[in-house]
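Hi all, a correction to my earlier message: I attached the wrong file for CPBP family intramembrane metalloprotease. Here's the right sequence:
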Amino acid sequence: MFLENGFLPENKFWKYILGSVLIILASTIGQVPFAIAVAVKAFSSGKTYPTTNEAVMKFLSPNVTLFLLLLSFVFGLAAIVLVVKYFHKQTLLSVTTSRAKVDWGRIFFSFSIWTIFTVASTAALYYSAPENFLWNFKPIPFLILAVIGVLLIPIQTSCEEYVFRGYLMQGFALLAKNKWFPLVMTSVIFGTMHIANPEVEKMGYIILVYYIGTGFFLGIITLMDEGMELALGFHAANNLVTALLVTSDWSAFQTHSVLKDLSTPSVGFEILTPIIIIFPILLFIFSKKYHWTDWKEKLTGNIIIKESTQNSENHD
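and the right structure:
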């Protein structure tokens, strides 16, 4: 069972707190090259060092900014691997899935289905209201974007999934000895971690409903499928395909994408559509393909670890 993979005799919840601090520290160190690049350009060009998040994001070229932003996740993912291996004495596989090996078919299926949906929905929006979009395609910058995106965006999304749906989900399960608490906690933390995104400033805190709802969706498919593969595929497709297809002045990633969204961001039914319509449809598709059953137990049940099992493990 996936959550039970973290129930080792030497594992304690305080280790997850300290481990999280180490992962955050590594990610922060990974942001230093970005800060240096901005400082160097400000000094060499004689420009004032940007003081707002929006100004910082636009100070360098979009591809350089994207590369340096994603670089911090390389440090973060490396920290996760080291913390899991040397601090918790677990394998990376144990925080990835309950299966004997990673099921790449699940990752690619989830990636493919969300890619198809994203491309189709973007095309529908473009043809229904072309005045809201600017054709932004420039071959060379787009090719550079594609290389950066393919190499680094899956690292970024995998880093987030390993933190929330893997590492912290097992940590909160160890603390609470049930399944609903880690689902709720990781979803809320995941959603509120997006509070600094420019979309929040433009649309208000109501957009956090979407981010938290997405966290619940990713947590549910992880618990029901006893592994992170579907979440890894979905998250990678969501960020990569969006970065390649559409950018805007108010999105988290400013990219040389195919299209630029010129519309004024607003909060309406579109915020709730994924949560109440699209995600349930995906849950239905996944549940039929992978034969999910016993939803209540897998999402809210208690976790009981036999004392004899832990004693024997400890003895070994």
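Sorry for the mix-up. Residues 90 and 126 are 47 Å apart (CA to CA).
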